[in-house]
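Hi, here's the filled form for the chain we discussed.

Project: internal
Contact: R.S.
Residues: 286
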Amino acid sequence: MDLRGNVKSQARAVHKKTLWIRMPRRALLVGFATLVGFATLLSITTLDAHAQGGGAAQAATPQKTARASAQKDFTGYWVSVVTEQWHLRMLMPPKGEFTLLPLNAEARAAANMWTPAQDAGNECRAYGAPVIMRVPGRLHIHWADDNTLEVDTDAGKQTRLFHFGASARPTDSQPTWQGYSVATWAGTPISRTAKVPGPEGDIRVVTTQLKAGYLRKNGAPYSEKATVDEYYDTFTEPDNNSWLVVTSIVTDPQYLTDPYTYTVHFKKIPDGQGWDPAPCVADEVR
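And the returned structure, exactly as it came back:
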């Protein structure tokens, strides 16, 4: 190889090495510029967030309370309107009258042994959460606080508390006539694909921790294992009358062969006129 060819060969080798060195430097410079730009943007965004509320944690929108989330107004005074099963709600049911109750053999045997005398001191057995809405009377519904809806009944002087946002029921409390009720707004998402059952804006209430009582005042029993699943709806008709409709589903693995389901309705009244709190009684309708 002559001198000229040797020089060209060395020049090409040097040029290749130069390209191999320059390319990573260019890539490094581009990457560094991108990183600087991203860091600058992040700093600006962070400063802007701090300026608006003191950081991302403070900028998060606070969760609405149950009262603020309500799409319907359930508050006020309501009176029972009995248009069906009148003889079972407005009259004392005779012993052995189990129509519409899915009682098993054990429950029927217990009810057939019932006598009014055994309810002395336990007159509220037929005023528990599974059936209190069927007892003719008036309701007073109001917010006890922003996440607790209170339902008072003049029949039996009962008070129910619907706890919104309660993820866990207390395990150390004793069973009561009204139990412990967890409430949710129907139609609200509970996962990516599921929502709380029921039409949007209604209330779903699940009640447990119940004291054993009666489904009917003739001794038809439910046990402490019973659960009540309820749906509350309200609407106003063109004549400006407002209605409250309550659907209850009572399940009891001890005494019922199937869920016991019923629907009752109430008409809204302007104020507390006629409000008549009365104690539980065992031998009268209310």
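Let me know if anything looks off before we file it.
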